[in-house]
């Protein structure tokens, strides 16, 4: 496939007229061809107009048509072949194995949603049959299903150029719900975005869908991104990135004449609780496993374990020395962009220069221009309580170990935490009592609680929650990964006393789609 530096608006490809950007290969610092000129108000308007035009026909595609489209997107992404892997590696600095794995996750996600669409329980069909004889008043015939919200603006994330970007989870779940998508591509990987965007554009064409089902724009957040979220034809937003970016979009969405939901996945420090029984048996092993999770992908995961809590003493010392040894043996890794590298090195030096914090270890330096060295710090629970800045995410392979005088202090620290995507408990059976006290606190704070694992590496499945209270996300009621993500882009509609011929198929007598439906309160296939 040839990449040309063009945006994709419906079935066309065109060059923008705003400032041009080029991807930077973060391994070498070199700028890459082609240049990508940004779009402006005219392109946002055209993409949104087409998306609005496409909405009614796309949301009423049959489950089979829509599932077929999701599968066609997956196949078209695979068909790009090695060019996609090479371009994504060059634009992100991520190693080949990781990018290949991420492609598998991306197409797996699209196929998962194809299955979800066919299975149909997302429609949540409900029927309360009429009760004409009911006293004192008769009951009408009431039928409910969920429909798509409308065109969705999706912001590609820098740290997952495939799985959280143009054809990633936000796009897959919005398409599955029946929403057209307008992507604002991330400037860190425009070539990867164009390749995936063209694959989706070709799937729209081969499936015979309205061209407005998919568009993709380049340009700055302040112009294209803001204009998209403000456009009255956009009805929801999916975003993964910084807290400042996510909250800016939340404000724009809330200040519209018609406010809309923003599903922003933002910052998280993912606390790890080291309970005494686990530390008595496995302190060194936990130290090693923790560093593996911390340094994975240069730490550029929103699930990265940025905070560890343990009880002061010999076992915590054993954990720290094992983590120190593992970390000092870790090489520096190329980070995604010069900007992310700068933000990381500034965050690490803020910690290193904080007189409430001690440096435990730093990883090796590397020859590349944007290679981040992993870093581990420690502080006391008393110092941690005094300094709000220690709660801030340092995006990259940096973590802070809080030494607590006892387990009750660990609980008190847990109470102080902001909303998180994940929390991890390292425990053994004799820690059960403490874990029982911790879990209710964590349930209030986080979206996913893990036992004896590490938080990086989110499984894409039906039971996954990749979400959590603010500021980890802007809306804790859902998830951005897994099949439940479809809920973000749906709303219920009730049809009262409709004639059969006017009802959507999902709600007709005889259950022509063979759905699970709740009829008079009873769930069944009738
Ligand atoms: N927690 C997480 O999952 C992630 C956190 N980050 C954090 O974000 C920093 C910057 O990384 P980026 O990926 O570039 O994230 P970012 O939040 O700066 O940008 C993400 C997207 O949002 C757009 N955007 C940002 N601010 C906007 C605004 N005010 N109005 C409209 N659109 C806006 C950008 O143009 C881009 O397309 C990192 O150094 C890191 O601290 C980045 C990636 C993931
Ligand atoms: O840990 C993962 O696999 C996903 C992390 C993630 O969602 C992110 O970093 O944005």
TrEMBL record:
Residues 17-468 form the Aldehyde dehydrogenase domain. Keywords: Oxidoreductase. InterPro entries: Ald_DH/histidinol_DH, Ald_DH_C, Ald_DH_N, Aldehyde_DH_dom, Aldehyde_DH_Superfamily, ALDH_KGSADH. It comes from Roseomonas marmotae. The keyword Oxidoreductase applies. Pfam families: Aldedh (PF00171). The keyword Oxidoreductase applies. This is Aldehyde dehydrogenase (NADP(+)).
């Amino acid at each position: 496939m040839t990449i040309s530096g063009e945006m994709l608006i419906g079935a066309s490809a065109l060059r923008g007229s705003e400032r041009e950007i080029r991807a930077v290969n973060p391994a070498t610092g070199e700028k890459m061809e082609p240049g990508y000129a940004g779009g402006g108000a005219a392109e946002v308007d055209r993409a949104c107009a087409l998306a609005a035009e496409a909405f009614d026909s796309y949301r009423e595609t049959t489950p089979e048509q829509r599932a077929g489209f999701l599968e066609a997107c997956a196949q078209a992404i695979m068909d790009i072949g090695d060019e996609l892997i090479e371009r994504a590696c060059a634009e992100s600095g991520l190693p080949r194995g990781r990018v290949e794995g991420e492609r598998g996750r991306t197409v797996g996600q699209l196929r998962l949603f194809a299955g979800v669409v066919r299975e149909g329980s997302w429609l949540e069909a409900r029927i309360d049959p009429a009760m004409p004889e009911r006293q004192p008043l008769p009951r009408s015939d009431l039928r409910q299903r969920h429909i798509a919200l409308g065109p969705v603006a999706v912001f590609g994330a820098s740290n997952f150029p495939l799985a959280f970007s143009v054809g990633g989870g936000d796009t897959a779940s919005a398409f599955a719900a029946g929403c057209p998508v307008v992507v604002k591509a991330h400037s860190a990987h425009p070539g990867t975005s164009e390749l995936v965007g063209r694959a989706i554009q070709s799937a729209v064409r081969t499936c015979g869908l309205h061209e407005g089902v998919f568009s993709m724009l380049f340009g700055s957040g302040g112009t294209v991104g803001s204009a998209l979220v403000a456009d009255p034809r956009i009805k929801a937003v999916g975003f993964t990135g910084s807290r400042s970016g996510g909250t800016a979009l939340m404000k724009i969405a809330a200040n519209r004449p018609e406010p809309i939901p923003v599903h922003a996945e933002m910052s998280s420090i993912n606390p790890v609780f080291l309970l005494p029984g686990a530390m008595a048996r496995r302190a060194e092993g936990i130290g090693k496993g923790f560093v593996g999770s911390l340094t994975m992908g240069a730490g550029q995961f929103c699930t990265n374990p940025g905070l560890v809590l343990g009880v002061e003493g010999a076992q915590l010392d054993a954990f720290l020395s094992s983590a120190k040894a593992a970390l000092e043996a870790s090489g520096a890794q190329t980070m995604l962009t010069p900007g992310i590298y700068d933000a990381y090195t500034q965050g690490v030096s803020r910690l290193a220069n904080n007189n409430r914090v001690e440096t435990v270890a730093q990883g090796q330096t590397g020859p590349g221009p944007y290679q981040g060295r992993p870093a581990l710090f420690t502080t006391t629970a008393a110092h941690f309580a005094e300094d709000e800045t220690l709660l801030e995410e340092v995006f990259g392979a940096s973590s802070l170990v809080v030494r607590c005088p006892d387990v009750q202090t660990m609980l008190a620290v847990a109470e102080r935490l902001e909303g998180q995507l994940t929390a991890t408990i390292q425990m053994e059976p004799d820690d059960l009592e403490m874990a029982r006290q911790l879990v209710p606190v964590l349930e209030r704070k986080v979206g996913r609680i893990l036992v004896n694992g590490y938080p990086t590496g989110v499984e894409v499945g039906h039971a996954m929650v990749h979400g959590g209270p603010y500021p980890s996300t802007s809306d804790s009621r859902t998830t951005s990964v897994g099949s439940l993500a479809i809920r973000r882009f749906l709303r219920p509609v009730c049809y009262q006393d409709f004639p059969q011929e006017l009802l959507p198929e999902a709600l007709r007598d005889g259950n022509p789609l063979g759905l699970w439906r709740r009829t008079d309160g009873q769930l069944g296939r009738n």
